[in-house]
User: Fold this.
Amino acid sequence: MTNTRVGDPPLKVTDLTMAYGPRVIQRDLAFEVAKGEIFIIMGGSGCGKSTLLRHLVGLKEPARGKVFHGRTSLYDASSREQSALMQRIGILYQSGALFSSMTLFENVALPLYQYSDYTASEIRELVMFKLALVGLGGFEDHLPAEISGGMKKRAGLARAMALDPEILFFDEPSAGLDPVSARRLDDLILELKESLGATIVVVTHELASIFAIGTDSVFLDAETKTMIASGHPRDLLERSEDARVVRFLTRGEDSR
Assistant:
């Protein structure tokens, strides 16, 4: 299946409404994520950021609207097409979502054994490379319980990258990390963008991360239940006239 061509955005949302039964979470969402961007989904607590992520990665069907991966409408695609699309994305969940009974090597190797035709020796080489890429060389035989929270996030990132995805999705990657570990993770995300040329979508409310890594963004508002701003986070900080956006980006201390 040829999913993308030159000029196609890797990810596009049109006329999207998210709902749980009759309860609308967000409506009328429309945006594109350009190739190579670090795209931030931001907004206050309860606005639907993580719900939007679930819609983007095929875990929840929209009440209305479309999610396109390249030229393919995700929820109109056949199950076979959806499976192929899902192998072209990687997801880092808040907790890292590592299997506690498996070593870091086994966690990262799992998608390669499931979805690739590599030999065991090729998989070992790839896993060792991915772990080294996130600074975990030498930790392949450790269990998740034997490493720190920041290391778990990096191990989860190595697993998300196992199949060389076109798009990486991060759900609150800095959650639970101390400021130093959070900054290291931000630096790693920037390094991956430069070295791999990956398109990255990040759900976060952490201002330090938003301004450190974001190159484009959308702001979801819980009160109006729709997106009320989009663009580079620093441009929104400097130019937005919407008090809700400014309040969020300054934590209520507008010093522009």
